Amino acid sequence: MKRKVAWKTSHQNQLSLLPPSYDELVPKNHPVRVVNTILDQIDISSIESTYKGGGTSCYHPRDLMKILVYAYLRNLYSSRKIEQALNENIHFMWLCGCIKPDHNTISNFRSGKLKGNFKKIFNQVVVLLAGQGHLSLKEIYVDGTKIEANANRYTFVWGKSIKTSRARIEKQIKELWCYVETVYAQ
User: Fold this and answer.
1) Is 161:133 a contact under the CB 8 Å cutoff?
2) What domain count does the chain have?
Protein backbone atom coordinates (compact mmCIF):
# COMPACT_ATOMS: atom_id res chain seq x y z
CA MET A 1 0.00 0.00 0.00
CA LYS A 2 1.50 3.30 -1.07
CA ARG A 3 1.43 6.16 1.43
CA LYS A 4 0.29 9.61 0.51
CA VAL A 5 3.13 12.14 0.25
CA ALA A 6 2.74 15.19 2.50
CA TRP A 7 4.22 18.36 1.03
CA LYS A 8 5.30 21.37 3.06
CA THR A 9 3.30 24.39 2.03
CA SER A 10 4.82 27.56 0.70
CA HIS A 11 3.34 30.90 1.68
CA GLN A 12 4.93 33.05 -0.97
CA ASN A 13 1.96 35.40 -1.32
CA GLN A 14 1.12 35.56 2.37
CA LEU A 15 1.25 39.08 3.77
CA SER A 16 2.75 39.63 7.18
CA LEU A 17 1.41 42.03 9.76
CA LEU A 18 4.87 43.50 10.41
CA PRO A 19 7.80 43.25 8.01
CA PRO A 20 10.85 41.38 9.33
CA SER A 21 13.70 43.44 10.71
CA TYR A 22 17.03 43.15 8.87
CA ASP A 23 18.73 43.05 12.26
CA GLU A 24 16.85 39.86 13.12
CA LEU A 25 17.92 38.24 9.84
CA VAL A 26 21.67 38.77 10.38
CA PRO A 27 23.21 36.46 13.04
CA LYS A 28 24.90 38.20 15.97
CA ASN A 29 28.32 36.62 15.25
CA HIS A 30 28.33 37.24 11.48
CA PRO A 31 31.46 38.88 9.95
CA VAL A 32 29.33 41.72 8.54
CA ARG A 33 28.81 42.93 12.10
CA VAL A 34 32.59 43.02 12.70
CA VAL A 35 33.08 45.07 9.52
CA ASN A 36 30.34 47.46 10.64
CA THR A 37 31.77 47.88 14.15
CA ILE A 38 35.35 48.43 12.99
CA LEU A 39 34.52 50.88 10.21
CA ASP A 40 32.32 52.91 12.56
CA GLN A 41 35.42 53.56 14.68
CA ILE A 42 37.93 54.75 12.10
CA ASP A 43 38.71 58.36 11.28
CA ILE A 44 37.62 59.24 7.74
CA SER A 45 37.90 63.02 7.99
CA SER A 46 40.50 63.00 5.19
CA ILE A 47 37.91 61.53 2.82
CA GLU A 48 35.06 63.70 4.07
CA SER A 49 37.11 66.83 3.43
CA THR A 50 37.34 66.01 -0.30
CA TYR A 51 33.59 66.52 -0.76
CA LYS A 52 32.33 69.93 -1.85
CA GLY A 53 29.15 71.41 -0.40
CA GLY A 54 26.05 72.20 -2.42
CA GLY A 55 24.47 70.29 -5.24
CA THR A 56 22.64 67.03 -4.81
CA SER A 57 23.06 64.76 -1.81
CA CYS A 58 25.68 62.01 -1.93
CA TYR A 59 26.29 58.71 -0.18
CA HIS A 60 28.29 58.94 3.01
CA PRO A 61 31.89 57.76 2.47
CA ARG A 62 31.70 55.54 5.57
CA ASP A 63 28.78 53.63 4.01
CA LEU A 64 30.65 53.21 0.74
CA MET A 65 33.76 51.99 2.59
CA LYS A 66 31.69 49.45 4.51
CA ILE A 67 30.27 48.18 1.24
CA LEU A 68 33.72 47.86 -0.35
CA VAL A 69 35.38 46.20 2.65
CA TYR A 70 32.61 43.66 3.06
CA ALA A 71 32.55 43.02 -0.69
CA TYR A 72 36.30 42.36 -0.67
CA LEU A 73 35.82 40.06 2.32
CA ARG A 74 33.33 38.11 0.17
CA ASN A 75 35.67 38.09 -2.86
CA LEU A 76 33.53 40.54 -4.82
CA TYR A 77 35.71 43.02 -6.67
CA SER A 78 33.63 44.01 -9.67
CA SER A 79 31.57 47.14 -9.06
CA ARG A 80 28.71 45.58 -11.04
CA LYS A 81 28.73 42.45 -8.84
CA ILE A 82 28.82 44.65 -5.73
CA GLU A 83 25.82 46.57 -7.07
CA GLN A 84 24.01 43.29 -7.63
CA ALA A 85 24.82 42.13 -4.08
CA LEU A 86 23.39 45.38 -2.68
CA ASN A 87 20.09 44.46 -4.30
CA GLU A 88 20.06 40.74 -3.47
CA ASN A 89 22.13 39.96 -0.37
CA ILE A 90 20.53 40.54 3.04
CA HIS A 91 23.92 41.12 4.70
CA PHE A 92 24.76 43.96 2.32
CA MET A 93 21.28 45.42 2.82
CA TRP A 94 21.73 45.37 6.60
CA LEU A 95 25.26 46.80 6.45
CA CYS A 96 24.39 49.83 4.35
CA GLY A 97 20.83 50.43 5.50
CA CYS A 98 19.39 49.50 2.09
CA ILE A 99 21.12 52.26 0.15
CA LYS A 100 21.75 51.20 -3.42
CA PRO A 101 24.63 53.04 -5.05
CA ASP A 102 25.11 52.01 -8.66
CA HIS A 103 28.31 50.53 -10.07
CA ASN A 104 29.53 53.92 -11.31
CA THR A 105 29.27 55.44 -7.84
CA ILE A 106 31.14 52.50 -6.32
CA SER A 107 33.85 52.62 -8.97
CA ASN A 108 34.26 56.41 -8.75
CA PHE A 109 34.55 56.27 -4.97
CA ARG A 110 37.13 53.50 -5.12
CA SER A 111 39.28 55.12 -7.81
CA GLY A 112 38.77 58.74 -6.75
CA LYS A 113 38.04 59.53 -3.12
CA LEU A 114 39.55 56.39 -1.61
CA LYS A 115 42.68 56.22 -3.77
CA GLY A 116 44.96 58.57 -1.82
CA ASN A 117 43.55 57.63 1.58
CA PHE A 118 43.47 53.85 1.39
CA LYS A 119 46.80 53.16 3.11
CA LYS A 120 45.94 55.32 6.13
CA ILE A 121 42.49 53.75 6.49
CA PHE A 122 43.88 50.23 6.04
CA ASN A 123 46.38 50.86 8.85
CA GLN A 124 43.60 52.04 11.18
CA VAL A 125 41.49 48.97 10.39
CA VAL A 126 44.40 46.57 11.04
CA VAL A 127 45.25 48.25 14.36
CA LEU A 128 41.61 48.10 15.50
CA LEU A 129 41.23 44.45 14.43
CA ALA A 130 44.43 43.49 16.23
CA GLY A 131 43.41 45.50 19.28
CA GLN A 132 40.08 43.68 19.51
CA GLY A 133 41.68 40.27 19.02
CA HIS A 134 40.19 39.58 15.57
CA LEU A 135 43.59 39.62 13.88
CA SER A 136 47.10 38.54 14.75
CA LEU A 137 50.13 39.74 12.83
CA LYS A 138 52.43 37.06 14.17
CA GLU A 139 52.76 35.44 10.77
CA ILE A 140 52.31 37.17 7.45
CA TYR A 141 53.09 35.46 4.19
CA VAL A 142 53.44 38.20 1.61
CA ASP A 143 52.61 36.04 -1.40
CA GLY A 144 49.02 35.97 -0.13
CA THR A 145 49.03 32.27 0.67
CA LYS A 146 48.30 32.59 4.36
CA ILE A 147 47.43 35.30 6.84
CA GLU A 148 47.02 33.88 10.28
CA ALA A 149 44.05 35.36 12.12
CA ASN A 150 42.12 34.58 15.24
CA ALA A 151 38.42 35.34 14.91
CA ASN A 152 37.23 33.33 17.88
CA ARG A 153 34.47 35.23 19.64
CA TYR A 154 35.70 34.02 23.04
CA THR A 155 39.12 35.59 22.54
CA PHE A 156 39.83 38.82 24.36
CA VAL A 157 42.85 41.08 24.68
CA TRP A 158 43.99 42.94 27.79
CA GLY A 159 44.18 46.72 27.44
CA LYS A 160 47.86 46.91 28.41
CA SER A 161 48.89 44.41 25.75
CA ILE A 162 47.09 46.49 23.11
CA LYS A 163 49.13 49.57 24.04
CA THR A 164 52.44 47.72 24.06
CA SER A 165 51.81 45.92 20.78
CA ARG A 166 50.41 48.91 18.86
CA ALA A 167 53.88 50.23 17.94
CA ARG A 168 54.96 46.76 16.86
CA ILE A 169 51.85 46.33 14.72
CA GLU A 170 52.34 49.73 13.06
CA LYS A 171 55.97 48.83 12.33
CA GLN A 172 54.91 45.51 10.76
CA ILE A 173 52.31 47.30 8.63
CA LYS A 174 54.90 49.81 7.45
CA GLU A 175 57.29 46.97 6.52
CA LEU A 176 54.49 45.20 4.66
CA TRP A 177 53.65 48.34 2.66
CA CYS A 178 57.34 48.87 1.79
CA TYR A 179 57.58 45.30 0.55
CA VAL A 180 54.35 45.53 -1.47
CA GLU A 181 55.46 48.82 -3.07
CA THR A 182 58.83 47.35 -4.08
CA VAL A 183 57.21 44.22 -5.54
CA TYR A 184 54.70 46.20 -7.61
CA ALA A 185 57.36 48.73 -8.70
CA GLN A 186 59.27 45.97 -10.49
Assistant:
1) no
2) 2
Residues 6+ apart with CB under 8 A from 100: 83, 86, 87
Question: pTM, whole model, 2 decimals?
Answer: 0.67
Residue 140 DSSP SS3? strand
Spatial separation of the C-alpha atoms in residues 79 and 66, rounded to whole Å: 14
The 8 Å CB, 24+ separation contacts for 9-17 are: none
Neighbours of 114 (CB within 10 A): 18
Shared domain for 185 and 169, answered yes or no, is: yes
User: Residue 92 — φ and ψ, nearest 5°?
Assistant: -65, -40
Q: What is the pLDDT of residues 104-132, one digit of tens each?
A: 999 999 988 888 887 788 778 877 877 77
